[in-house]
Write a structure and sequence with these properties.
The chain is an all-alpha fold. It is built from 7 helices and no strands. The model has no long low-confidence stretch (mean pLDDT 92).
Length: 164
Amino acid sequence: MNKELTRAALLLTVALVIQALRVILPLPGLVTMFIIGSVVNMCLVLTVWLSKVQYALLSCAILPLLAYLQGQLAFLPMWPVVFAGNAILVLVAAKRQDWRLWVFGPVLKTVVLWAGTGLVLQLLQLNGILAKLMLTMMSWPQLVTALTGIGLAKLAARRTGLHR
């Protein structure tokens, strides 16, 4: 069996299980966003490091779709926005594992998510409290979860000795 495919499938499974915990964790939304977002970002970064870019991008597509089906992503038009943000992080992590990963990955992901969310909200002509909440969720918290996810991925890769 293909080790890279197996690793990617296992990391996708971990990310999906973690994502599903939102439904049962009795924690405030922002706390679960930081915990779950950080672990999901860790899984995405580990997937690109331990398998293939294509598998990591497939995970980038599957995770927001299932988040939408779980009711965690407000609108289906947000799927491409979240996919693009995650894909940016994965593509940067595939090429960079030095200081540039820590800077460019989280910053680019955050900019894509924030700007993309603003575009979707404009296209759907949504404003008010929900729009402000969505824009806030897709701004600085994404920077924090991406940075934390990279740190967790580096730690996990170092501890397991699986890093290539």
